[in-house]
Here is the input.
Amino acid sequence: MSALCFSALTLRLAGRDILHDVSFEVPAGQITALIGESGSGKSMTALAAMQLLPAGAQMRGRITLGDQDLTGLDESALCQIRGRKIGMIFQEPMSALNPLQPIGAQVAETLILHQGLDPRAAMTQAQAVLARVGLPADQFPPDRYPHQLSGGQRQRVVIAIAIAAKPDVVIADEPTTALDVTTQAQILALLRQLVDEDGIGLLMITHDLAVVAQMADMIHVMRRGEIVESAPADRFFRAMQHPYSKALLAASTHQVDLIAPTAAPAPLLCVHDVRRSYGAPGLWRRAVKPALRGVSFDIAAGGRMGLVGESGCGKSTLARAILGLDPIDAGSITLNGAPVWRGGAPNPDIRRQIQVVFQDPFGSFNPRHKVQRLIAEPLHALRGAASLPQGAALRAMIGDALIEVGLRPDDMDRYIHEFSGGQRQRIAIARALLIRPQLIIFDEAVSALDVSVRAQILDLIADISARHGLAYLFITHDLTVVREITDDVLVMRAGQIVESGPTAQVLDAPQHAYTKTLLAAAPRLPQTHPE
Amino acid sequence: MKGVLFLPRTIFIGGAITALFLLAALLSFIWTPHDVTGVAIAQKLRPPFGDFILGTDHFGRDLLSMVMVGARVSLAVALVAVGIGMGLGVPLGLAAAARPNAWWSDAIMRLNDLIFAFPALVIAILITASFGASALNAIIAIGIFNIPVFARLSRGAALALWQREFILSARVCGKSDLRISAEHILPNIANILIVQGTIQFSLGILAEAGLSYVGLGAQPPLPSWGRMLADAQTMVSFAPHLALVPGLAIVLAVLGLNLLGDGLRDVMDPRLKERQA
Here is the structure.
């Protein structure tokens, strides 16, 4: 029996077609996956099911829950459906929870609202629901606040709220995208368990093929507001039909051609026993939290090093230390033998040799400057050391830099908001390359991108590093990316490097228990060859 | 920007009222309907809409002319006071945000709290009373209380920006804190400063009126809205227009600036901007 059913759903918003003739079912007791890249309309489909569309949206078609048509209902009837019949799980658990309310009260609220329980009974019931999602009251008292929990625990609370009123359908919009791989594996297992035990129909919206490969019963691929392919999961991976599905899978299993460096490896960056602590703010004294606890490694000239670890392991602190943005407490960081931080200030000679590309393609640029000025910014590091190009020479230089990353020279006169996420990351790479540094740090540089764009950017990075003999440190939480783009890898946990070595060796035959856990948790695509 | 068509109506109404007062103030330098210093007892206390559009006061001076010259004083005092507040407050706030761990960063913000803790108008009265009542001292007094408003606002907004990745990459390029503040931070907080500026401007007009009302603002024979109100006090029962005219001038000027500020805030709201981007 199908719990939620979309038939011929068409949606127009601000004169644009968002969804076109979307029809599919979410059967009870099954996991239905809706896969697509950003802008494909998959989140709009979820909002349509909740009838929470933005103002001005014109919808045609039918959405039925059981035998009830949702499209004609008024607001008060819909409030009876939302939360009671359809639960929702969001991507970012911190913003989905009220930071000022204890978790027990937030779960109980749904029960008071939808089951008419009195507060005391609702609290007892809420404790039972929290225990079901893996937060038993003796370990996680319901009077805890969201900030006292980890990301995965918060997502469990969000799941508890979604399932508290025993809904027929739960919609999960990118439920694990904001989580670390080990946490992701646990949350996915929890969702599977809830579906099996309660007969909930789960609609799972995601961009990640690997996540649904192990989870979903039925897969629908969405592109530009249309469902281009629907198939049961096992058949989908065995014999996918639509070229877009194949392209998605190809991008997910993309392999970059890493050309072996020709130059004899000489040590470039030497990080030796680096330690750094943060003072947590307190009223009278500052509690000291160690972020880096003796980190040592070398990167050779032209070396391609990966750094893997979960959030909070010290990856970003290490990146900031190498970039000379923050001082270190002990140890040394040298580039070609010269210290990155000298005499209480960053060493300007090093500034010319290290550049960085950040994760967020939106936050990496001053929105008020044109591309030309954005890309030219690193030239500031050269002042005094070389004569800086001016006027036409500068424009030619920036035009060349844009061509090198696959953009057009006349893009330099546009503002950054005119570009897509992938194009912005290309501009970020052009900026980092402009002064021909010897080392670039990529800090989660492809994590915010869709798979197909990610594959292109990884190709670009591999190509450019080979052409310029560039060394890089690629920081990521994503093991598949590390496998693609690096020769050697460092695995970091709690401020220490627990394992290092050639990438293939570390990933195929991990020695340290933590590396094994990471690898086991990472979602994997089935080893099939679509023909 | 193609957004001009969608500007909120409040901008046009507020902008029109503000522009009207600005024009009247500028015009008063070269022309007023009548002389504002000449005393003509024969024409005293004329009602509005006769020979004198807004009537005359107890010395026979034309009220319209006085309102025009008074606008000059009010706007000039408020504008310069906001200028002092921005000119000192914004650099202090930016400096405090650039080095949040420095001792002087804390010192700046605690000093701000200290100034905030005093009731502004009372201290302004104290300053003008001890250094002499004049438009200049009124400007200084009002200006001092504008400093912490802008310091706090710019520090808060700048602190958030310092965490952004484009600031980090500017630091990687070896740019100094000063340069980053001027080049990246200031242009990105300019919008909220402009909005706050219009609101402080209207508060400045109110403060100036209050100071002149108690005789501590611009001195006679220069007319000012606050003193016109004070002079009208004893004659309200038989010549209500004496109080109504300057009172309405103050209300309208403040209303216009507040509408303008509200409208600007709507246009420059960062959430609105993200939706456009």
